[in-house]
From TrEMBL:
Keywords: Amino-acid transport, ATP-binding, Nucleotide-binding, Transport. The keyword Transport applies. It comes from the Archaea. One of its GO terms (biological process) is L-amino acid transport. This is ABC transporter ATP-binding protein. Residues 2-248 form the ABC transporter domain. The keyword Disulfide bond does not apply. InterPro entries: AAA+_ATPase, ABC_transporter-like_ATP-bd, BCA_ABC_TP_C, BCAA_Transport_ATP-bd_LivF, P-loop_NTPase. It holds the Pfam family ABC_tran. Belongs to the ABC transporter superfamily. CDD domains: ABC_Mj1267_LivG_branched (cd03219). GO terms for molecular function: ATP binding; ATP hydrolysis activity; branched-chain amino acid transmembrane transporter activity.
Amino acid sequence: MLRTNGLTKRFGGLTAVDSVDFELAENELCSLIGPNGAGKTTFFNLLTGALSPTDGEIEFTPHDGAQRSLVGAEPHEIAAMGIHRSYQVTNVFPGATVLENVRVAAQAAGPDRLNIWRNAGALDRYLDEAYAVLDRVGLADAAETPASALSHGAKRQLEVGIALAGDPDVLLLDEPNAGVSSESVGRIIDLIEDVATDHAVLLVEHNMDIVMEVSDRVVVLNQGAVIADDEPEAVRGDPAVQEAYLGGYDPTESDLATDGEPA
Ligand SMILES: Nc1ncnc2c1ncn2[C@@H]1O[C@H](COP(=O)(O)OP(=O)(O)OP(=O)(O)O)[C@@H](O)[C@H]1O
């Protein structure tokens, strides 16, 4: 569904993403991990058009369309093709209600995108979609709550809801658990697993227990290059991955290795 060939991004003399060959299949949940500065965010930004590659190709084949190149496409064009992302830094309009946040996102992804403020009445047609999304992310009861009044965990659920609006084929989730309390993490994990049943999901996640639990596949970046691309168990035992994380997380010491539950 989404594929990169030799994808490279250089910032001056620094190669942040280094000849990455990557493939994300339909309904696959793939995690992208790597130490700080490995190039994960830069890779996301290349996929969404926020950055242009120095070299390489990005190909996207939507459910019902022909293969297209994403190189040179604007972020809004890539979003309209069906690749949506959530953000590490929360991206909600705090003064708007939860429902309005999702409804506006649904319209922004649809054909009324350019009339978003001029033609506010047209937003009504997106209400049904917004309610369905809120149901799915577990926020139906909070529809009329101002987004600013949500707990941090609920804001992350709303982030996923905003990314879901407009019915994308691919979801790029950037640390949806960042800063979430331990009581709320389970809810976000359930949500990630649920959306992965009918979307291709690429997840950037620092919590390795979550990565090991939810992923079909794990891709490891180090200094911009892919050093492992395999099932979670194989990645956990890969010496190159352990070396890359030296001084940080050791995948062999994951809590999952002992009790199967995330910390
Ligand atoms: N706009 C930029 N200009 C110059 N260098 C950049 C820019 N963006 C990122 N970099 C550098 O590229 C490298 C990869 O950064 P990136 O943010 O993609 O890593 P990351 O894996 O997402 O890190 P983290 O886990 O800390 O978020 C780093 O060395 C970073 O300093």
